[in-house]
Design goal:
This protein has ten helices and eight strands. It is an alpha/beta fold. Helix 2 packs across helix 3, helix 6 runs parallel beside helix 7 and helix 7 crosses helix 8.
Amino acid sequence: MGFFDKLKKINIFAGFGSELNDDFYDELEESLILADAGMDTALELVAQLRQRVREKGVKTLEEARACMVEVIAGALSTGGLELNLSTTPSVVLFIGVNGVGKTTTIGKIGAQLRGEGKKVLFCAADTFRAAAAEQLTIWADRAGAEIVKQHEGADPAAVVYDALSAARARKSDVVLVDTAGRLHNKQNLMNELNKISRVIDRECPGCARETLLVLDATTGQNGLIQAKQFKEAAGITGIVLTKLDGTAKGGIAVAIARELGVPVKYAGVGEGVDDLKPFNPVEFAQALI
């Protein structure tokens, strides 16, 4: 069974007539909008499909389906899909609102990196949410990773400083940093992330860095709004899309990649450690339609 078979198939092409006419394209646009792709993305994808159908002389629904897989996979291919972990240590910041599965995502990625033989250090820099450090500690134990944490309410940038000092001393390969999902307002959040960024620049100049935004796929277009705000506040190198196994329709992945030019790097379809995988645009596109 393919990884994305767990994605609820909404089958974008279901119930269409066999004629590739204007009605077919109208229905396809509607299907894509219902799949959370959003109006602008749906219109653009269908325009690209029309062009391919013309250029290739496509006549059948099956051929059009294959072209649509190519169009969606192309829209999702907006940059490097793999994490840049080229320095020792490398730093991966995880950002996103509370409740999207951020801490769980760190645990799963940490476990996978440990499985590849890397020495992993978790940094509990979400000091505002009660029990966040305890939750991350449980995942660190499961993953066989080390963890640096302080008391609740501590300065997040100070925790990051401690973690980077520890990573250098212990020759850790990767530092995975949990950050606060919500502060009093966007300005506070921006200031906090900027402060953490300055500490990383100062303590690990030139290190490989990723900033991954964790999004709950079930939030649909609201996820796109979140992504735009976080991109403004922190800059993002990739997206982790969680909860694709539930009621999520998946089209939001295409909208985010297209509108933000940021690649989806991981996708989650369940609770298990193996239910978070590096993202594959072609497999995803095939599952979506």
